[in-house]
Amino acid sequence: MEKSTILSVDGLKTVFQTRHGYVDAINDITFTISQGETVAIVGESGSGKSVTALSIMKLLESSGQIASGQVLFNDMNLAELSDRKIRDIRGKQIAMIFQDPMSCLDPLYTIGDQIMEILKIHEDLTPAEADNRVLELLKLVGIPDGETRRNSYPHELSGGQRQRVMIAIALACRPNLLIADEPTTALDVTVQAQILGLLKQLQADFGTSIILVTHDLGVVAEMADRVIVVYSGTVVEQSGVHELFSKPEHPYTEALIRSIPRADTDRTAPLHIIRGSVPGLHEMPSGCRFHPRCDYATEICTQQEPPLFHLESDRSSRCWMKDGSLAKEFQHRLNTDNLDSRHPAPPNDAYTASKKEILLEVHNMQKHFPILKGILSRKVGAVKAVDGVSFEIFKGETLGLVGESGCGKSTTGRLILRLLDITDGEVKYGGINLAEFKGRQLKEQRKKMQIVFQDPYSSLNPRMTIGDIISEPLEIHRIASGSEKIRRAGELLEMVGLSSKDVYKFPHQFSGGQRQRIGIARALATEPELLVCDEAVSALDVSVQAQILNLLKKLQGELALSYLFISHDLNVVKYIADRICVMYLGKIVETADSETLFTNPTHPYTRALLSSVPVPDPTIKKERIILEGDVPNPAKPPSGCAFHTRCEHAKEICKSKIPEFKQMSLGHKVACHLIN
Amino acid sequence: MNPAPQINPGLPNTSIKQLSTKRIRLRKSLDETKRFIKTQKIGVISLSIIMLFILLAAFAPLIAPYDPIEQDRSAFMLAPTAAHIMGTDDLGRDIFSRIIFGARVSLLVGIATVAISMICGTILGVISGYFGKVIDMAIQRVMDAIMAIPPLILALFIAALLGPAIKNVIIALTIVNIPHFARITRGEMLRIKEMNYVEASRSAGSGALRIIAKHGIPNMMAPIIVIASLTFGQSIIAEASLSFLGIGTPPPNPSWGLMLSGASSYMENAPWMVLFPGLVLSIAVLAFNLLGDALRDFLDPKLN
């Protein structure tokens, strides 16, 4: 049965007014979506995927406007509709879900009122009918006990629940089309799995079409029927989801798919990278916008912008390679280039050579943040952010620390660096208790341990030059000053793959990936032995993430560094870490080397976590363990095993007794009552 | 990928290094001045106006055509003429000369109040924000107490306590204005303290002083400059109020504020008595505000 097209976007172009004049945010975006279909718009940051979504709804901020093209919805051209008329469509026929459920709900109204609001705008219902609809909607999106929950304020709900409320608001008027802009990006993987499942089920029930805007190819593989890949504001490839992953037709798509670390990626080989970064809006390259980063680019790519070539089975690709008459041009490129040989293999793991020499030993480390109340700041309780954690890091190895937000993994990193003071327990560095270091000794010790942050924007002082930023540690420790200092900063920049001429520039002149390199250069300035990488690649686009991961591996080989790699992204940790600790609510629940952890996960939480990660391959349909609910409040952790409230195997003993760490095999330890 | 250069701590010759560092600094400040002139046209104009006022004030006896205090009974409230280009006031004194002499008091009060309250307020604010806890509590409660009293009454009280003198007017206005700076800088310090670059600096071993001086204050210049340019105009006006109440400039001596408040009752008959001091005051305040804006943009690396 041929399904009817409900939205067709044709040659959509949106421009933004900036200090430098008008720039194209998106150019010539064309696609259609049928009844009940999910179309994913995929791209990296700055590719124009969100602008496309906003343009369809005409929700652009005042500096942006649709320059040409049309958006046909039920025979109406939305691009030309007046504001008055489009308001009737927004929320009623096309609804939108945004990324951040924290800022999308008004903190002053109850969630019931906020769902009611949209019904009042669009539907002519009696108060009793509207009341019923609100309860119905809450039930539909899986918020139990709607009668009382409708009176909750947004701050009383968890992130996942808020996103459910957003979905309830979006679905209130049974729209034909739902635009979901990164709906799960701000959520933990176990909650993401819940929300994606909910969206799928609602789509099956109501036949809603979904435009899913995302950067996560795993989510795409999971959800989409068709995929539109955008790069620098243009569609570069359009294809069915299976064809896209099995045989990408555009070099960008191909490189993108190859650059994500997956569970089965070879750890010893470097990741495939896309060199450079996504161009800014006013530095658009000539010709094909991808050519400066493309491995196949030839003469014509630099000069002429390719049209969208239509291929078999309803696919299209914006690449000159698809032009039959130019096949010869590319033939030699395809033959002579063995892509793998371009990226040198990283040097052998220093870890294997000097294995078993302990660098850092953490024993029963605890950090309790007091909860204070009243004008006298009485202590009324404590958030046990880290609650008895023990592990060790060997020289030259990478220890991965994974867990969902709020599990205490970042606090653990900061405690080791003594950026926070320990409540109880001890951290031994090279056999000496870190708590004993004071004053000068502590300052000396700080040289040996450095940190790389998640956010490449807030981690560099915007008022300092790159040279000053990188050489600050040199100045603090009086290792170098004056021109010597700048020379060293230049050396460090070269080491992380930037130019030594960049020392006089300021942070805002660099892209996110480059800033992350600068952050790494600063961390390396004092020649540390241990680097704590706190979500060091989480804020980066996938193509850049691979560059940074390769850099970290290369540096580890060259400088014999040890890493504590903190991340929520299991596949990234799998790729970079030798051993992994899984944390839940301030405790480590499972430790194993990364192969073992992925092939033989034992703790129910680890198993659920691994099964929740979307795999960028639509042919794999994983058996998914959906965890109910959210991570409990760390101020009031559940008794006994902290995981028992969400564990499907929980028994009586789990509620009362804290499980001990049991050795499964060499280096594989699990804290669970169900293991014998 | 680049080959890894060897890292080894260098120990360069100290005497050569110091010399070259000095020279680099000099070159740098010259370059910066050139950049300011090139990029901040309005800033240069404002700065020239302020310099002009300061020169006028400094060489007032040489420039002023008349004695600012001497009364000429034959020339009451004369409209501007060639002899008196800005006219004369109700006691027959030349307004132009009084403005030039008045600039001494007004500019001194304005600039000194801004400078001292900015420095003291910022120091208190960053200490409060950085260290928190009891120190923060103590400083902020004192600031609250100062802010709770209407500023003019407080200034009046302090000035009355210390006796009538320009110095005491400045002290009074400084105390009144410190809380504004302390409040803003405390908030900014709290924000900056949480930034990753501060944490990176701490993990590299730096202490409180370095973090405040290198990371804290440079990143809060924008709001400080805004408050400073507002304070400048306000304190010139406040000086007038205090003088009017007999605590600032003693009566025959001119100040812009005093001229304004004295002239208000003659507005209908002799508008020039209000117009010229008012105009000069507005120009000075505007020049300071624009200079502040220019300085803020100049210091922001993103706008270069």
TrEMBL record, chain A:
Q: Which GO terms describe its biological process?
A: peptide transport; transmembrane transport
State the SUPFAM superfamilies in the record.
P-loop containing nucleoside triphosphate hydrolases
Output the PROSITE patterns linked to this UniProt entry.
ABC_TRANSPORTER_1 (PS00211), ABC_TRANSPORTER_2 (PS50893)
UniProt domain ABC transporter: residue ranges: 7-257, 360-610
- Which is an annotated Pfam family here? oligo_HPY
Keyword Transport among record annotations: yes
Instruction: Please name the GO terms that the record assigns under molecular function.
Output: ATP binding; ATP hydrolysis activity
> SMART domains recorded for this chain?
AAA (SM00382)
**Alphabetically ordered keywords of this record:** ATP-binding, Nucleotide-binding, Transport
Q: Does the keyword NADP apply?
A: no
What family classification does the UniProt entry report for this protein? Belongs to the ABC transporter superfamily.
Q: What is this protein called?
A: ABC transporter ATP-binding protein
Species of origin reads Peribacillus glennii
Automatic annotation (TrEMBL), chain B:
Q: Which residues form the ABC transmembrane type-1 domain?
A: 103-292
Name of the protein in its database record: ABC transporter permease
Q: rRNA processing: present as a keyword of the record?
A: no
Q: Which residues cross the membrane?
A: 42-64, 107-130, 142-162, 224-250, 270-292
Locations listed in the record: Cell membrane
An example of a Gene Ontology BP annotation on this entry?
transmembrane transport
Which InterPro entries has this protein been placed in?
BP-dependent_transpt_permease, MetI-like, MetI-like_sf, OppC_N
Name the keywords, alphabetized: Cell membrane, Membrane, Transmembrane, Transmembrane helix, Transport
* Record-linked Pfam families: BPD_transp_1 (PF00528), OppC_N (PF12911)
As for membrane topology, the entry says: Multi-pass membrane protein
PROSITE patterns in the record, alphabetically?
Answer: ABC_TM1
GO annotations of cellular component type: plasma membrane
What the record says about family reads: Belongs to the binding-protein-dependent transport system permease family.
Origin, by domain of life? Bacteria
> Does the entry feature the keyword Transport, yes or no?
yes
